[in-house]
């Protein structure tokens, strides 16, 4: 089954958790270990990518290590065309819609499309929208951050993504954010779109994850919860359990 179809089928059962692994924040061996933790906890997809990756080799090594340690689909979450890996299963072919720089809106996609074709990666189109505080993703992506109380603009970007034919919308507060995407923004966006809504950034515990799902998120992404010291096994297991407790009816 192709990854996009798998995601849609899983969403008929319950909201999902995707684990984000950044190759720039740990070596390949640790990346594989974190993927194993995520699979055991009940994550549905392993995303590999980040805003500060230094080389394509980093991505290749991380993806291969993840594939060795777990059986979940591995989806690239790229910052540029030069950081794609032939070893992944799919790629979030995402446009950073509120970037001031055309590279992140479309130019990197023009370069990357040929690589995606050559590597036989499954492209999954995504509208990527960065909300305050934005963190490194907002800075590197040169985003005009959506203000936390500007619900109408967030809805406008999300609807534009859907109308352009994108398969997913991702509201991102930024890795390590002190505050996650506001609940009302999630609710307003979800009420207006017909495609799955992903929410990430600033979600470090089970209570926050559940809160965002109840607000309307279909998929929760966490990365920092895996990277930080402590007990990532328990933290992630608790997060996934809370997310799945909001079962589809």
Task: Draw up the topology in text.
Elements (H helix, E strand, L loop, with lengths): L2 H9 L4 E6 L6 H14 L3 E4 L7 H14 L4 E3 L13 E7 L5 H18 L2 E9 L4 H6 L10 H13 L4 E5 L10 H10 L4 E4 L5 H10 L3 E4 L1 H4 L4 H13 L5
Parallel strand pairs: 1-2, 1-8, 2-3, 3-4, 4-5, 5-6, 6-7, 7-8
Helix pairs in contact: 2-3, 2-10, 6-7, 8-10
What key phrases describe this protein's structure?
249 residues; alpha/beta; TIM Barrel; 8-stranded parallel beta barrel; 8 strands
Number of domains: 1
Q: Please state the structural category.
A: alpha/beta
Largest sheet: 8 strands, parallel, barrel
- Strand portion, in percent? 15-25%
Mean pLDDT: 94
Question: Can you write the helix and strand succession as a string?
Answer: HEHEHEEHEHHEHEHEHH
Please tally the β strands and state the result.
8
- Give the end-to-end Cα distance, rounded to a whole number of Å: 24 Å
- What is the count of helical runs? 10
| CATH-scheme architecture | Alpha-Beta Barrel
Rg computed from alpha carbons, rounded to a whole number of angstroms: 16 Å
Query: What is the fold named in CATH at topology level?
Result: TIM Barrel
CATH class category name: Alpha Beta
Q: What low-confidence regions span 5 or more consecutive residues with pLDDT below 50?
A: none
Strand order of the largest sheet: 1-2-3-4-5-6-7-8
User: What's the helical proportion of residues?
Assistant: 40-55%
């Amino acid at each position: 089954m192709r990854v996009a179809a798998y995601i849609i089928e899983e969403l008929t059962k319950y909201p999902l958790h995707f684990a984000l692994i950044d190759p720039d924040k740990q070596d390949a061996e640790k990346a594989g270990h974190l993927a194993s933790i995520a699979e055991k906890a009940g994550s549905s997809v392993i995303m590999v990518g980040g805003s500060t990756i230094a080389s394509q080799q980093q991505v290749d090594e991380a993806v291969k290590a993840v594939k060795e340690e777990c059986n979940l689909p591995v989806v690239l979450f790229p910052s540029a065309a030069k950081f794609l890996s032939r070893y992944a299963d799919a790629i979030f072919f995402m446009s950073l819609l509120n970037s001031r720089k055309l590279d992140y809106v479309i130019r990197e996609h023009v370069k990357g499309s040929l690589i995606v074709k050559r590597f036989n990666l499954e492209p999954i189109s995504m509208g990527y929208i960065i909300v305050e505080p934005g963190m490194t993703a907002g800075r590197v992506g040169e985003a005009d951050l959506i203000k936390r109380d500007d619900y109408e603009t967030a809805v406008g970007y999300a609807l534009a993504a859907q109308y352009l034919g994108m398969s997913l919308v991702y509201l991102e507060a930024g890795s390590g954010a002190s505050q996650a995407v506001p609940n009302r923004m999630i609710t307003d966006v979800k009420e207006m779109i017909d495609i799955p809504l992903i929410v990430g950034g600033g979600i470090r515990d089970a209570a926050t994850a559940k809160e965002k799902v109840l607000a309307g998120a279909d998929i929760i992404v966490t990365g920092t919860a895996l990277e930080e010291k402590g007990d990532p096994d328990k933290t992630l297991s608790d997060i996934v359990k809370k997310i799945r407790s909001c079962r589809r009816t």
